[in-house]
Amino acid sequence: MPETPWWRRGVVYQIAVPSFADSNGDGRGDLRGIIERLDYLNDSTDTSLGIDAIWLTPINMSPLSDFGYDVSDYYSIDPRFGTMRDFDELVEECHRRGIRVVMDLVLNHTSIDHPWFVESRSSRDNHKRDWYIWRDGRAPGKPPNDWLAVVEGSAWQYDETTDQYYYHAFLPFQPDLNWRNPDVRREMLGVARFWLDKGVDGFRLDLVNCLYEDVLLRNNPPKLGPRPYLAQKHVHDLSQPESLEIASELRRLADEFEGRVLMGEVLTDMPDVCVDYLGDGTDRLHLSFYFDFIRIKWNSGAFRRSVRWLEEHIPRDEWPCYYLSNHDLPRSYTRLGGSHPRARAKVAAVMLLTLRGTPILYYGEEIGMPSSRVPRRMLDDPIGRKFWPLRVGRDGSRAPMQWSAKANAGFSSWRSWLPVDSSYRSRNVEQQGGRPDSLLSWYRQLLCLRKANQALHSGDYHEIDQVPAGVFAYTRQSGPEAVAVYLNFTAHRIACPRPPEPPPGRAWHVLLSTHEADRTSGLSHIRLMPNEALLIEAI
Ligand code: GLC
Fold it and tell me: I want to staple 383 with a disulfide (CB 3.0 to 4.6 A). Which of 90, 214, 300, 393 is the partner?
């Protein structure tokens, strides 16, 4: 049997670079800060978290008007995050510890300050004009068509200099590159090669299905939806077949190197589009984020159905990729926690780390960082600043990592670019690290277990369907090794029927439970305690 590649077996830890660790006291996280915290992430002992890869939010030169998702030079590191030497050292130090490094690659758009755009907008006949998407309006004051920006409003920005509109799928300061121009395509693939040559282990591809738009710029048909953007069928501005070709081209490039991974952010409300980006398993992306989990509430049936959908639709040789939080969403501790956030966070951790698929763990999730309330005057996110108070923006999930109860939560010796969440005094790495019953200790145990257990990191998935409402249960199996996972989503005790037959010659034994001390019954019947996550193993 060929060895499972690292990106299937492993757990990816997402680091929001500006908020993880500040080494120089300027209030913003940086690469040296990450280097200093690598032992926390994985020093190969069971006192570290034990993750396998880090995904860094963008670190390229940028005005940082959108958390770095507005690049002004793809070949350099923003000095606020460090130098190229720091980057090389980070990669080297990570590799020494067996940690892979995944970079965010923003291919769809640049910053308005990128020299390419500065040239492009300067005149209609500039040689970079066609690097972006420029069009005449339909009539004075009327944009070329009805396309809307993801964040709202027309996706076309009028530019006086040349009396034309440019296209931006996201915010007006993020003009879309024109991927139909072969020079753009060549340049951007060159960017990917540049970083692969420097030793990065892969990319998280930002908005990978947004690269191309309909060549005729046809209007999107309407549909019912709660806000204008969602009241269009995005058939002409998103997910054009040419974007899939780029996924394939990037795959061919990545395959020239050893063990690299492409993880795609696919912007869509249709899960089958996410699956499309995986192709047959060899010809497109390795992983495509499954966004469905972020839409559903804390409900066993909803998660069961969501997983079932993916398991039924993803090609057999393909691999899911799950996450519960990221830098764009309210954190799972707050979103899913209800009145039992601590207990649910442990159940959610088990689900994330034991489903068939690669888990992405967002920094701070392992200590139960909540979404914070950021006062209006301190907002950084352009969405929050523009739409307050209707939309508070994404800063609440980007607060500094809570390392200790010291000033600035130990994130910085001097200050902090976003306010630290008030929970830091009682909820931080230092305090939880020393407590066996903490969420952090729970994550460490689970990660350690997952690493050692073939069924958990690489096995097949089978839903256990004979379970009462409120419970989500499944088995993971690899050859004779099997683990059954029972998750009680309710605050009640629930009795489940007998577990499925273990593999021949084996019997079920408790492997791990959130309620070890309370477990009195045997395994002929499973009696779950309120909010219990139980793992049993066939031995
Ligand atoms: C992605 C990023 C988000 C960013 C946007 C524009 O959705 O996750 O943070 O604002 O792309 O690049």
Answer: 393
Closest ligand 1 atom, residue 69 Cα? 12
Number of Cα atoms under 13 Å in the Cβ half of residue 170: 25
Q: Using a 6 Å CB cutoff, which residues line ligand 1?
A: 66-67, 69, 106, 170, 206-207, 265, 327-328
Work out which ligand 1 atom sits closest to the CA atom of 108: 12
Q: Active-site residue 256, yes or no?
A: yes
- 3-class DSSP state for residue 420? coil
Choose among 282, 272, 286: nearest CA to 314.
Answer: 272
One pLDDT digit (tens) per residue for the chain, 539 residues: 568 899 999 999 999 999 999 999 999 999 999 999 999 999 877 789 999 999 999 999 999 999 999 999 999 999 999 999 999 999 999 999 999 999 999 999 999 999 999 999 999 999 999 999 999 999 999 999 999 999 989 999 999 999 999 999 999 999 999 999 999 999 999 999 999 999 999 999 999 999 999 999 999 999 999 999 999 999 999 999 999 999 999 999 999 999 999 999 999 989 999 999 999 989 999 999 999 999 999 999 999 999 999 999 998 889 999 999 999 999 999 999 999 999 999 999 999 999 999 999 999 999 999 999 999 999 999 999 999 999 999 999 999 999 999 999 999 999 999 999 999 999 999 999 999 999 999 999 999 999 999 999 999 999 999 899 999 999 999 999 999 999 999 999 999 999 999 999 999 999 999 997 666 555 778 999 999 999 999 99
CATH fold for domain 6-109+181-448: TIM Barrel (3.20.20)
- Tell me the whole-structure pTM to 2 decimals: 0.98
DSSP-assigned states of every residue in 256-313:
TSSS-EEEE----S-HHHHHHTTTTSSSS-SEE--GGGGT--S-HHHHHHHHHHHHHH
Where are the domain boundaries for CATH 2.60.40.1180 in the chain? 460-538
CB atoms under 10 Å from CB of 377, counted, come to: 5
Which mutation among 66, 204, 229, 326 tests ligand 1's pocket best, with the greatest number of atoms within 8 A of CB?
66
Burial annotation 433-447 (CB, 10 A radius, 16+ → b, else e): beeeebbbbbbbebb
Question: Hey, whose CA ends up nearest to atom 9 of ligand 1?
Answer: 328
Q: Which CATH superfamily is domain 115-167 in?
A: Oligo-1,6-glucosidase; Domain 2 (3.90.400.10)
CATH number of this structure's domain 460-538, picked from the four choices 3.40.50.720, 2.60.40.1180, 3.90.1570.10, 3.40.50.460: 2.60.40.1180
| Span from the CA of 341 to the centroid of ligand 1 (angstroms) | 27
Intervals of CATH 3.90.400.10 along the chain: 115-167
Distance of CA 482 from the midpoint of ligand 1 (Å): 39
Specify the residue with its C-alpha closest to ligand 1, atom 4.
69
CA of 344 to the centre of ligand 1 (A): 28
